Amino acid sequence: MEEVPYHLLCCIVSLVMGGFLGLTYSYKRYLKPYVERCIDRWALLSAILGGVLFPLPLPYGINYPLSLFLLGVPFGMRPGYGRIELITGVSIAILGYLIRGLIGR
Fold first, then answer.
1. Where are the transmembrane segments (predicted)?
2. Is 1 contained in some domain?
3. How far apart are CA 82 and CA 74, in angstroms?
């Protein structure tokens, strides 16, 4: 019998919790259903920190659940909010992951 990947389960749970936090935050913060050209500072900071934290080698692999929690905040925001922040954070995470892979060789 194969071993259950509990680390992956922890990452999924942290992403969902970040999404719930982002949804709650966006409903309390914004009253209008959709606003254009509005970048939320807290969601942008969360996405950038999550993107920077993803490729870092932290002990016990804590970087993946923590970075997915921070990336889940703009991911879970209301429709129309958080998309620019999420794209910024994910692109930083992908770029850092690729750089780490190229340097690690």
1. 6-27, 39-60, 80-99
2. no
3. 5
Q: What is the DSSP string of 36-69?
A: SS---HHHHHHHHHHHHHTTS--GGGTHHHHHHH
What global pTM score does this model have? 0.84
User: What single-letter amino acid sits at 32?
Assistant: K
Does residue 92 fall inside a structural domain?
yes
CA 101 to chain centre: 20
| Residue 91: inside a domain | yes
Domain that holds residue 94: 6-104
> What is the per-residue pLDDT across 63-73, written as a single tens digit (0 to 9) for each?
889 999 999 99
Give per-residue pLDDT as tens, 59-95: 888 888 999 999 999 998 888 788 888 899 899 989 9
